[in-house]
Amino acid sequence: MLTMKKSLLATSILGLSISVAAFSSMFSLQAEEKAATDVVIATVNGDKIMKSTLDGYMAILKKSGKGDKDAAVNDLVATEIALQEAKKTDILDRPETKKAISDYTRNVLLKTWTKEKVESFDINDDAIKAAYDERVTKLASKEFNARHILVKTEDEAKAVIKEVSGDADFAKVAKEKSTGPSGSNGGSLGWFKAQTMVPAFANAVKAMSKGDVSKEPVKTQFGYHVIKLEDSRDAKLPTLESLKPQLTRVISQKKMLAFMEELKKGADIKITLPEEEKVEVKAEEKTTEKKEEKKD
Fold first, then answer.
1. Which of 66, 103, 136, 269 has the fewest C-beta atoms under 10 angstroms from its C-beta?
2. Is the same domain home to 223 and 289?
3. Is residue 74, in this structure, part of any structural domain at all?
4. pTM of the predicted structure, to 2 decimals
5. Which sign does the torsion angle of CA 258, 259, 263, 266 carry?
6. Same domain, 257 and 126
């Protein structure tokens, strides 16, 4: 016969070790179990605690590095006792409780329907390939390996260009004169993609050939740069297979948005919000749209 430690019961009553979120996950797991394979592992005042409930709770505990089955059973028993006591009150009849239950039900319904609807979309390989091609065209096709010397004025930069265009060693001059953090490393920036640099610097690098030194100072917000392109190479692009899950999600989301737009067109919608509040809502919608565009 199961016995509970008083300390465990007290702890459970004051702050049950299973959070509301954990219980939600646990009940989801329980619902997925087949009734035929489920068994009763405890009863509390005639109410049954099923093995599927214990299994769900154990799965949650193991994620946090715990897994004592006896303690888990005691937790569930303590929780059931507290639940039975709670049912004796008028909590379920309170307006705020009914509202919370209604909101939770709506959320579960919406989340489940959305998930199932998104999974029902037929996304073929051609659509994924098209999305991949579109994504890849936006990625840099080249990578560059360059050094630079950063100085404060244009005149200083012109003097450096004259110096390194002769016999002077670029890396040595960078160590002596560059004010940038890469100066101590001979001005080396290593391999980089153009879009990771400020526009003026990136445009200058893209127009250069291997071994070139910039003929004019390149001005940015950091000062004046003298650049030497050490080398360039084709960028290693992600494979279609590696991007397939992400692309599938993006396509599914777009299909879902299109589906919702169609539903919206056929819906009888009456907006009764006051005009000044409508303006605020539209402003929020535009902000949300911009955020979504950035994600894509």
1. 269
2. no
3. yes
4. 0.54
5. positive
6. yes
125 and 270, same domain (yes or no):
yes
CA Rg value for the chain? 32
> Are residues 184 and 227 both part of a single domain?
yes
Range of the domain at 61: 6-88
Q: Identify whether residues 10 and 64 lie together within a single domain.
A: yes
Q: Say if residues 224 and 179 touch (Cβ distance below 8 Å).
A: no
Per-residue pLDDT tens for 219-244? 999 999 999 999 999 888 899 999 99
Q: What is the Cα–Cα distance from 21 to 6, expressed in whole angstroms? A: 25
Q: Name residues whose C-beta falls within 8 Å of residue 167's C-beta, 6 or more positions apart in sequence.
A: none
Tokens of 239: 């494979």
